[in-house]
Amino acid sequence: GAVVSQHPSRVICKSGTSVKIECRSLDFQATTMFWYRQFPKQSLMLMATSNEGSKATYEQGVEKDKFLINHASLTLSTLTVTSAHPEDSSFYICSASGTGGANKNIQYFGAGTRLSVL
Amino acid sequence: RKEVEQDPGPFNVPEGATVAFNCTYSNSASQSFFWYRQDCRKEPKLLMSVYSSGNEDGRFTAQLNRASQYISLLIRDSKLSDSATYLCVVWDTGNQFYFGTGTSLTVIP
In 3-state terms, what secondary structure has residue B61? Predict the structure, then answer.
């Protein structure tokens, strides 16, 4: 299957700092990337959908000014958690969906970023 | 009503047992269906796509019933390593993916 790389895998930061998470599709072009958040023992929650070259579509209740998403190319999307607070501590996972062929309509996930805000 | 609904379980089964999960979806126009597996504190990984005619991959069999709008996953001869959360995913028109809440499976020695 296709490979999605997510970096960093673990972040510990002080309250008030901003954290940037990168998501790259390594061997396919991703027209659409998704950002999820998962709290312990809970299901994945979609935060936003980003399409290359356009603004992200945020789910209800997700603050777009707090969670900045940039999808500048077909292989890279970034999520920036601005002014992080302890309640933002969570497991953030990206996924990418291919443009066509065998990868079309299939989501491939990055390994996730575990964010801890002190 | 949720787009995708799954029985959260947990399912606790002995090694070697056969276990089946169902998942229902609300949009009859949904086009693609998948089962993912998620281990604790890890990302979901694609287990198998679900095709209209049903498909099998080793001990795993997936079925789609469009008339009743559900998909199923059957695991035969359960192994300890099958313990995980199984997520049902439906791809809709308009490039929307919908996840079930996941079904927790624990295979007991």
Answer: strand
Distance in Å, alpha carbon of B82 to nearest chain A alpha carbon = 18
Rounded to whole angstroms, the Cα distance separating B74 from A89 reads 35
Find chain A residues with C-beta within 8 A of B101's C-beta: 43
Of B43, B49, B91, the CB nearest to A110: B43
Distance CA A104, CA A99 (A): 5
Distance, in angstroms, between A110 CA and closest chain B CA?
Answer: 7
- Reduced to 3 states, what is the DSSP secondary structure of residue B82? helix
pLDDT one-digit tens code per residue, B62-94? 999 999 999 999 999 999 999 999 999 998 876
In which residue are the tokens 């008030």 written?
A: A16
Q: What is the pLDDT of residue A100?
A: 64
Rounded distance, CA B90 to CA B97, Å? 6
How many residues are given for chain B? 109
